[in-house]
């Protein structure tokens, strides 16, 4: 276990130089205070969890202090936003403080979000508010606990600094951890600004640091792109299987590691709704829940375009062709497990689709349905769940198919079925209304609710005594909360 001043830095991205990022110091927040910290994320840096309670911790992650070895940099990138190309974006309100490596030899980027203005702030103030910082923190750690690849969050630091959005709010910072903060948009930036040398340097950097095994392949860059395609397909399969809607799948928010990245107006589905749009500003539904699958491929094509200097168009096309089959395989595998199946049959996709259609028509709670399905034998569970459906004849027909399929799957004890299904079907997810309750309390100065919610969500598959209220469908006020991009 380490104290805060014992972290070891090795700032590999900063060493790429000024073409890639700009030195900027964090702008401190007034009266920084700890809102919440993740012990699991602290462990990634070998940090003693007790240090979160020290004043130095709030000062460091509230922008007042810096390690001597840190080299705070704002990264430059660009990206396709809602389908249109924006030539220059970049860290407008976040700084890469440096890269820390842990005892296991892993490097973790320390990225401070809400750290003030940078050369890339455009019209923004460089700040993040408490509300959005809490949402990013809870989501990062909750997705990780569900087994969905994501950037991580070490802590949220609150303050008394006024920040103007639709109304006056308070500034906050999130300390985000990821093994890289390089986005598709980094490659796009150097491609469209026609800087082939820097682009090659970036590609070498990513290959050497993050895909070293691809070096052994006959075409290392192509192998790396294939890997990026596969990781993204797997990540999006998990989003779809667990009902996560990202909301702003612009290419500047897509990580080259295939992790969920840059949280804005995200949401988990309450009722199953394939057409759900979580981003209030997404009028066309470009990033609706079901569109996430084709948009994942669209984004990879945008990356592919930026990689044309290194890889032939035919090879890129072939690699892009792997996306849907990878996606389908991962998605179906997870959905089979969510249904309690241990074997594969050709018609399983139809079984899943049939269920989703029924859930859509009846507004069935996506998370609780699967959890309850595992509570009992298939026979008993479908009987009990039947009441949630409007189209009873439709549900009965599906239930017959399901029971027959379970019978063919194998003969196992209910105890086994329950354990197996509960291990993949969470009881607790980050529902918007739960986040909203925690935010309202935190805005009033009470951080206990954020901390409790974070704890509950860190073990989403385990029933926790006294936490029944976190496993409920939303009350009426919490059903269709509008979350905007202004965070
Ligand atoms: P996002 O939609 O959060 O991914 O942000 C898109 C771009 O806008 C990125 O370059 C951000 O750094 C920048 N940005 C977002 N909010 C702010 C802000 N409050 N101040 C400065 N830049 C911002
Ligand atoms: Mg972003």
TrEMBL record:
<comment type="function">
    <text>Nucleotidyltransferase involved in the post-translational modification of proteins. It can catalyze the addition of adenosine monophosphate (AMP) or uridine monophosphate (UMP) to a protein, resulting in modifications known as AMPylation and UMPylation.</text>
</comment>
<feature type="binding site">
    <location>
        <position position="126"/>
    </location>
    <ligand>
        <name>ATP</name>
    </ligand>
</feature>
<keyword id="KW-0460">Magnesium</keyword>
<feature type="binding site">
    <location>
        <position position="113"/>
    </location>
    <ligand>
        <name>ATP</name>
    </ligand>
</feature>
<feature type="binding site">
    <location>
        <position position="90"/>
    </location>
    <ligand>
        <name>ATP</name>
    </ligand>
</feature>
<dbReference type="Pfam" id="PF02696">
    <property type="entry name" value="SelO"/>
</dbReference>
<feature type="binding site">
    <location>
        <position position="262"/>
    </location>
    <ligand>
        <name>ATP</name>
    </ligand>
</feature>
<keyword id="KW-0067">ATP-binding</keyword>
<keyword id="KW-0808">Transferase</keyword>
<feature type="binding site">
    <location>
        <position position="125"/>
    </location>
    <ligand>
        <name>ATP</name>
    </ligand>
</feature>
<protein>
    <recommendedName>
        <fullName>Protein nucleotidyltransferase YdiU</fullName>
        <ecNumber>2.7.7.-</ecNumber>
        <ecNumber>2.7.7.108</ecNumber>
    </recommendedName>
</protein>
<feature type="active site" description="Proton acceptor">
    <location>
        <position position="252"/>
    </location>
</feature>
<dbReference type="InterPro" id="IPR003846">
    <property type="entry name" value="SelO"/>
</dbReference>
<keyword id="KW-0547">Nucleotide-binding</keyword>
<feature type="binding site">
    <location>
        <position position="262"/>
    </location>
    <ligand>
        <name>Mg(2+)</name>
    </ligand>
</feature>
<feature type="binding site">
    <location>
        <position position="253"/>
    </location>
    <ligand>
        <name>Mg(2+)</name>
    </ligand>
</feature>
<feature type="binding site">
    <location>
        <position position="176"/>
    </location>
    <ligand>
        <name>ATP</name>
    </ligand>
</feature>
<keyword id="KW-0464">Manganese</keyword>
<keyword id="KW-0548">Nucleotidyltransferase</keyword>
<keyword id="KW-0479">Metal-binding</keyword>
<feature type="binding site">
    <location>
        <position position="183"/>
    </location>
    <ligand>
        <name>ATP</name>
    </ligand>
</feature>
<feature type="binding site">
    <location>
        <position position="92"/>
    </location>
    <ligand>
        <name>ATP</name>
    </ligand>
</feature>
<feature type="binding site">
    <location>
        <position position="93"/>
    </location>
    <ligand>
        <name>ATP</name>
    </ligand>
</feature>
<comment type="similarity">
    <text>Belongs to the SELO family.</text>
</comment>
